Amino acid sequence: MTLIDYRRPLSEQRPAPGTSTDPSAPGRSTPRGRLEVVGPLGPRFEEILTPEALDFLALLHDRFASRRTELLTARTLRRESIAGGAMFDFLPATRAIREDRSWRVAGPGPGLEDRRVEITGPTDRKMTINALNSGARVWLADHEDALSPTWDAVIDGQLNLHDAIRRQIDFTGENGKEYRLAEETATIVFRPRGWHLPEQHLRWVRADGRSMRASASLVDAGLYLFHNARELIERGSGPYLYLPKLESHLEARLWDEVFATAERRLGIEHGTIRATVLIETLPAAFEMEEILYELRDHCAGLNAGRWDYLFSIIKMFRDRGRRRVLPDRSQLTMTVPFMRAYTELLVSTCHRRGAHAIGGMSAFIPDRRDPEVTRQALVMVAEDKQREASDGFDGTWVAHPDLVPAAQAEFDAVLGERPHQVDRLREDVHVTAEDLLDLEVEGGAITAQGIRQNIRVSLRYLDAWLRGSGAVAIDHLMEDAATVEISRSQLWQWITQGMLTDEGMPVTRERVEYFIDRAVLELDTEQGSRLPEAAELLKEAVLGEEFPAFLTNGAYERHLG
């Protein structure tokens, strides 16, 4: 297998001018592969898994699946080099791109000019209607961290998006309450699953007869674009996506080529697809400008994916000694220096290139049955969004409709009638590699409460995830796959690095296993609970010698097949 060489200039790694690797290019007679459905067919599945849609997915896999595999291998090699003592830095080979002040990204498409508040959430039918009616300017329709990727959920989400875009969606709850779309609704930005995830209910059969699981990224994005791109354009919007978990500009380049191929096949103008990239991995933080450059014809902006970013830091430095160990998750706020450096670099990078900078999601959520919890949530969210708006962000995320007014008020106070503040270049920002890598947290500590909290959150989330819910309210915080990845990664790192709590208690496998078993007994076991399986998954993730790169990958293969 030919691996990507991160040291070579970008220009040397592009196809030669005039060549094409597209199996559908004129004059090519390359044998084609096919996509086979191996999952059961539910109601209306045939509306999404049409022969034409499957042929489109086969085209994307024929062209891009092998490159995806190469890039995932490159991730592993990079991580191994970090474990061996290498360190992150801005890429010398791409210095010319960073220093060239002339280039800009495409910017927002119709309906994305003003993104001051975006609501995130899964794509079940009720949530789809509520999110579109929430008053937010944008809905992040999430098939990644907020999705438990059961086969039914994956295809049902595509059906709900298809219906919502055509305003053919309604829902009646068990209590008889009816849900319908309002006259004005949010602009949809769809988030497919990341490059690392497979879709085991579809198989790509190569032209040579060999088969493998399909790429979840190509499946999610491909089905969404195939069924909805033209409809969205005709309705005055466009096909917009959030791209998760990228670790390099070469992964962004792959997405850009996917978009260009999709546009040609679907007969829509080049650059119609617009993407916002989540900068939620440490490697990507060092390649923000290169990522924008690679996607410049299709790029609307970057987002500060704060929770996955913390997970990535822990994962990358998990075996690099105690200096790289972070304290309790509750102490990792957006005001600690390394997180400030990351977000300020993102804003200045985006605005220099004409891109939107979108802030992250505060985990606090209201409780309509508890006014005091709601009051505290609104205070915390307002404080978080005030900081983002003052720092120059053009918009932000919330996870609940009741938080939209509080977030919007903070951005209204800064933006007024302007749709964004891209013209604020933040030339006062000068972030170095050392700033991004200085993980010191003043007064930070590992506590017994922090250990127990990581365990309880992980167990409760995994229990819900195994039962089909990907976004879960736990102790008045919105938890998804990203926050649970932080929790279990911290436990593994604290054990393997031989850390002590602030009271001098060693964090050992035996002690953590005891806490897990006790938490299972303490937690309520309602009908349908899958806590025993959740505990098994958590133990495997935090007590073993090996560190699973992603907690949900193994769980998906074993439990959601």
| Anisotropy-based shape | globular
Q: Give the termini distance in whole angstroms.
A: 29 Å
Discrete helix count: 19
Percent strand: 5-15%
Number of E-state strands: 15
What is the helical fraction, as a range of percent?
A: 40-55%
Order of strands side by side in the largest beta sheet?
6-3-2-13-12-11-10-9
Task: Briefly note the structural class of the backbone.
Answer: alpha/beta
Biggest sheet features: 8 strands, parallel
Give the mean pLDDT: 93
Cα-based radius of gyration, to the nearest Å: 23 Å
pLDDT < 50 stretches = 1-21, 23-27
Features:
561 residues; alpha/beta; eight-stranded parallel beta sheet; three-stranded antiparallel beta sheet; 19 helices; disordered N terminus
Describe the protein.
- The protein is α/β, with parallel strands linked by helices and 561 residues long.
- Helices cover 44% and strands 12% of the residues.
- The protein has 19 helices and 15 strands.
- It has an 8-stranded parallel β-sheet. Strands 1-7-8 form a 3-stranded antiparallel β-sheet. Strands 4-5 form a two-stranded antiparallel ribbon.
- Helix 5 runs parallel beside helix 6 (216-234) and helix 12 packs parallel to helix 13 (404-415).
- It is globular and about 65 Å long.
- The two termini are 29 Å apart.
- The relative contact order is 0.11.
- Residues 1-21 and 23-27 have low confidence and may be disordered.
